[in-house]
Amino acid sequence: MTTVERAGSRQGLPAAPPVPGTLKADPVLAVYVHWPFCLHKCPYCDFNSHVRSAAERGHDPWSEHYLASLAAWARQLPAARTATIFFGGGTPSLMPPELVSQVIMRILEIWPPVDDAPIEITLEANPTSVEAARLADLRAAGVNRVSLGLQALDDAALAVLGRQHSVAEGLAALEEAQRHFARVNLDLIHSRPGQTPEAWAAEWSRALALGTEHLSGYQLTIEPGTRFATLHRMHRLDLPDETAAADMLLLTRQLAAAAGRPAYEVSNFARPGAECRHNLAYWRHQPWVGIGPGAHGRLPGASPGEWYGFAAIRRPEEWAAAVRSGKPLALAEVEPVDPDQAMRDALMMGLRLAEGVDPSELARRFGRNTDTVIDFVRARDLAEAGYLRVAQGRIRPAGDGWLLLDRILAEILR
């Protein structure tokens, strides 16, 4: 992607890049709300999260800032509709419930739901006792799905990951979540320092028995700029080797399928019909808008194949200052996405899904011949080798292709 304008001044507020006047006015939106505050920065986390005091992250003036940003986006997308809402972070369970309620109500006022059915409204939560106590209030605020970051069912592992809860506290929070929400996801991380496939199989089986409709089982990745990256560079992280990590990925898929929660995406597992509809919008390359510091969005233009990427100012105080100064979109970047690149992005994300992608549908959406992006000869070779399945007009990973997805994409993308 080519950056049209990138705000980066070191003094004063960043210059606001222009918003294209050719955005599609009536997209069906997945609405992402970013709450950037945490009680503690985990050593593996590279998300836009910031440790601030309770006073600094209180209801006022953040309510005014979020509502002003929403009003500005409403002017850009006057006829849009809401498909899903997702509060991410940071730690959204630290948001004042009254602010969560205000944001939900405002979103549904400016962009009514697509149909009469209740929309999916997800909020990520940490399982400390303080945040678990907020779950009833968050349910009353309008949240109907909660994603709980347990991350491990082992106290020693939680300490290594820098988490602020114990296993007992996490399980108590999960019980509280299941009391208030019909739809609950729990997150776990595998391929942690010192972990074996056998230990992970026991831990994952325990998690599957906890009764949630949806689980996310992510492989630990070492992200640049994190504390773990420093430790890894210093050879102070005893990570599982590639073979052990692959075994854990296979065990994750096999055990989840046997428990009635098959993988619908590389790291996500759900009972049929319980998939996260908001995240499916990302993986299916559907429009989404991001509200809050550092939030990203991707929106279609008025012409076929025309897309734009957006990113808000990352630092909370600078984002808030931009909103107050009359720049309520508080954007740091606006980038046009070349149609071929948009189609590549859709293919890369779509192949993460069990449903795969339909090249003919991509051609219709982006107004391009898929031959310019996909090497179909190589795709057929990989299908004959058992790494891909090409059937009924769709391409999807198969067999060990799930373990080698990055390499497969590198081979079939022109």
Report on the structure:
There is one protein chain. The chain is of the alpha/beta class and 414 residues long. It folds into 2 domains: 20-282, TIM Barrel; 339-414, Arc Repressor Mutant, subunit A (Orthogonal Bundle), CATH 1.10.10.920. 37% of the residues lie in helices and 21% in strands. The protein is built from 15 helices and 17 strands. It has helices at 59-76, 97-110, 129-132, 135-141, 155-160, 167-180, 197-208, 227-233, 242-258, 277-283, 316-324, 339-350, 359-366, 376-384, 405-412; strands spanning 5-6, 28-35, 37-38, 50-51, 81-89, 120-125, 145-151, 183-190, 214-219, 263-265, 268-270, 288-291, 296-300, 307-312, 331-337, 388-391, 394-397. Strand 5 (81-89), helix 2 (97-110) and strand 6 form a beta-alpha-beta unit. Helix 1 runs parallel beside helix 2, helix 2 (97-110) runs parallel beside helix 4 and helix 12 (339-350) runs antiparallel to helix 13 (359-366). The longest helix is centred in the first third of the chain and has 18 residues, at 59-76. The radius of gyration is 21 Å and the shape is globular. Residues 1-11 have low confidence and may be disordered.
CATH topology name of the largest domain, in short, is TIM Barrel
> What is the CATH domain class of the largest domain?
Alpha Beta
Shape annotation = globular
- pLDDT < 50 runs, ≥5 residues: 1-11
Number of helices: 15
The SS-based structural class is alpha/beta
